[in-house]
Amino acid sequence: MHMETLVTTQWLADQLGAPDLVVLDASLHLPGAKRDAAAEFREAHIPGARFLDLPTLIDPDSEVPSACPTHAQLEARLGGIGLRNTDRIVLYDDSVMRTAARAWFLLRLHGVNAAVLDGGFSKWMAESRPAEAGTPQAEASEFSTDGQSGSVRTKTEMLGNCETRAEQVVDARDSGRFTGEAPDTVHNLPGGHIPGARNLFFGDLLAADGTFRPVDELDKAFRQAGIDPAAPLIASCGSGITASVVLFAHHLLGYRHGALYDGSWSEWGADPATPKETGPAQ
């Protein structure tokens, strides 16, 4: 059964309980939020959902902070929570950063299709839909990833792109950190941006209730930021989280070529040798 990439709370409510549907909580919070995603999941989650534990779904062997997991690491995590290759996957979060988009990117990177719940858990609860407590036990299974349908850029590739400007760079952080008017307190770094980057704050892609804006408004947001969504594009942010929201919105526009600079500012800003700009986008 075909499933859209973005699904509504009503669609999910109608599908809940289907034997091939797996709902995953992909919540992740910044340290400053002082929120524990696992504890909140135990207190309340969409009935039947499983906890993805997105904060730990990284490659600990990489020099890149919070690097995307490898094929084997993703297979181990998804198999460990009982996913099968025939399952339809819906991702949701209860994060201001719409972190289900990060999970969507990680799965897609390894050829795994998944949908995102529009508006997340907050919209689900605002509509007085059911929730349950506890930690559901799923029997481990074999899960295999055999493809790749997303792409990641390294610092070396980003340095090369500073010279060629072959790919547009879109920075998903707020304008204060982008321009350097405000420090990056999350990563304890000065503000600023990669030379030539454009600024498209991820929050501008969302409506007040956390749902994604209509496609025509998403397209307009990209263009107002000086980005041609049809041209080569790399998204960056602080650590690869909110850049994934930009990439998900780009996907909703019908494009499949958006790449992620996985290290983002946490890597670029921490390296004294990388070129940096401050002020508005040039």
Binned, the helix content reads 25-40%
| Percent of residues in β-strands | 5-15%
Physical arrangement of strands within the biggest beta sheet? 1-5-4-2-3
Flag low-confidence runs: none
C-alpha-based Rg, rounded: 18 Å
Shape: globular
Q: Tell me the major beta sheet.
A: 5 strands, parallel
Indicate the structural class. Answer: alpha/beta
Instruction: Give the SSE string.
Output: EHEHEHEHEHEHEHEHEHEH
Total strand count, please? 10
Summed up, the helix count is 10
Mean pLDDT: 95
State the oligomer.
single chain
What is the first-to-last residue Cα distance? 46 Å
Written description of the protein model:
Helix 4 packs across helix 9. The protein is globular and about 50 Å long. About 30% of the residues lie in helices and about 10% in strands. It is α/β, with parallel strands linked by helices and about 280 residues long. The termini are far apart. Helix 9 links the parallel strand 9 and strand 10. Strands 1-5-4-2-3 form a five-stranded parallel sheet. Strands 6-10-9-7-8 form a five-stranded parallel sheet.
